[in-house]
Amino acid sequence: xxxxxxxxxxxxxxxxxxxxxIISIFERKGLRIAGLKxxxxxxxxxxxxxxxxxxxxxxxxxxxxxxxxxxxxxxxxGVDAIEVVRQMAGPTNGRKALPGTIRGDYSMSxxxxxxxASDGPETxxxxxxxxxxxxxxxxxxxxTLRSLYATDEV
Length: 154
Ligand code: UDP
Ligand code: MG
Description:
Strand content: 15-25%
Radius of gyration: 15 Å
Strand order of the largest sheet: 2-3-1-4
Bound molecules: uridine-5'-diphosphate, magnesium ion
């Protein structure tokens, strides 16, 4: 099923000048960039975005690290994009993530781990709404679509 998912390039990625390199990994895979913007996160949006972690001891440090610079938010589209992008990101801890995954290739940290990626269809819907207005998501189509997928796949 054609899906959209939210990716955030975290401040560690911005600070390490890896914005272009990480975006190009998603492009190279064949995913479509449906939305793209830079934004400075604040307490309110992070309390919402990481609501499942507010009681954890590392939450203040996580929040701090997510506000260190602006992030780059991406709406990424493809068939089964939510699972595909999670697989591309790899497990949370960069030291445990396998080479070939984004975190495995670019991160040594359980916190400074390059990307956020939505973890399921419900989360993706809520998170895309949290970071993008409707008019910031674009429905153009890639001319390479017929080379990216079999006709019965999309
Ligand atoms: N995090 C952390 N320490 C931990 C677990 C998570 O700093 O022990 C941070 C890390 O940046 C992670 C984010 O909190 O990406 C969200 O955690 P989650 O469990 O949702 O992992 P993710 O979905 O990003 O893999
Ligand atoms: Mg998560």
